[in-house]
Structure formats: structure tokens, C-alpha cells
Specification:
Layout lengths: L1 H17 L11 H5 L2 E11 L7 E6 L4 E7 L4 E9 L6 E7 L2 E8 L3 H6 L4 E7 L2 E6 L4 E7 L1 E2 L2
Keywords: Secreted, Self-incompatibility, Signal
InterPro entries: Self-incomp_S1
Pfam family, one: Self-incomp_S1
């Protein structure tokens, strides 16, 4: 009998997770109730291209498309979100400059990333040779991804 109960609960849980997300009162969604957020985060992308180039970014997750944004030198774009209990929150960005581009993850479930971000704020800076993550623990930028040539 226990196997039948476990099987039934597993099916109910699977259906609950895959159900369509509905917005409830106060901006809470059914997904927030089924898979609660366990920590609040902020991701920031900074244009540190000293050549004066515009940085084009398009960031998204499975649920959210943050749109296409052009950043001038020293401009920044930030967004806040809550990591879910399943540790499946993932954000990635397409970035391009005059002579290069990259597709890069900017947030994922990783203890090293969390440590570098001080467990709350990931700051990515695009520079002429690549994308750097500010390592709060060491107080320095760390090269994470190099530009690919072209568009």
C-alpha cells in the first residue's frame, strides 16, 4: 500500500510542478507557492568596454525574457529574482560588441558562483578581452569568458 501512496504523491507533485503558472494577489504566482523561493539575488551586467563601444545584451531564463538592451560605457543593467527550492534557477545572456559576441550563463546553482557573488549579488563586467565576474571574497574581477570573434 505504501508504494501506491508514494506513486500517487509523485504523480500529484509532478502535475503540480508542471501546471500553468497563474498570477495571484500581490504578484505571487502559483509557481511561487508550489516551488517557493529560497533566496533573493541580484545580477548586474556592466559595460566596461573602455573603447567606448556599446554593449548589446539579451538576458533570459526559462520563465523570463528580460529584453534586448544596449549599454553605453559604464552603464549597467540589473535584475532581482528569487532562487527556487529546486535549485534550478538559471539565467543566461547573449552579449555582443563591435567585434565579438558570447552566450554565457550569468546565474546558475553553483556554490563557487554563490561564494564569489557574496551569496546575493553577481556583478558581471564586459571588458575588451571578455566577461569578468566580481569576486567579492577576493575583491577582484575574474575573467570568466572570452569574446568569440564576429557577431
Amino acid at each position: 500500500m505504501n508504494c501506491i501512496k508514494q506513486f500517487f504523491l509523485a504523480i500529484c507533485f509532478s502535475l503540480a510542478i508542471t501546471c500553468q503558472d497563474h498570477v495571484l494577489v500581490g504578484g505571487t504566482t502559483t509557481r511561487d507557492i508550489i516551488v517557493p523561493k529560497i533566496s533573493e539575488w541580484q545580477v548586474t551586467v556592466v559595460n566596461g568596454l573602455t573603447t567606448g563601444e556599446t554593449l548589446f545584451i539579451h538576458c533570459k531564463s526559462k520563465e523570463d525574457d528580460l529584453g534586448e538592451i544596449s549599454l553605453n560605457f559604464r552603464d549597467r543593467f540589473s535584475w532581482n529574482f528569487g532562487e527556487n527550492m529546486l535549485h534550478s534557477t538559471l539565467f543566461w545572456c547573449y552579449m555582443s560588441k563591435d567585434d565579438g559576441y558570447m552566450n554565457v550563463k550569468v546565474f546558475w546553482d553553483d556554490v563557487i558562483l554563490f561564494h564569489r557573488c557574496g551569496w546575493k549579488n553577481c556583478i558581471w563586467t564586459a571588458k575588451s578581452d571578455g566577461l569578468y565576474l566580481w569576486n567579492l571574497a577576493n575583491g577582484e574581477d575574474v575573467l570568466s569568458e572570452k569574446w568569440e570573434v564576429g557577431w
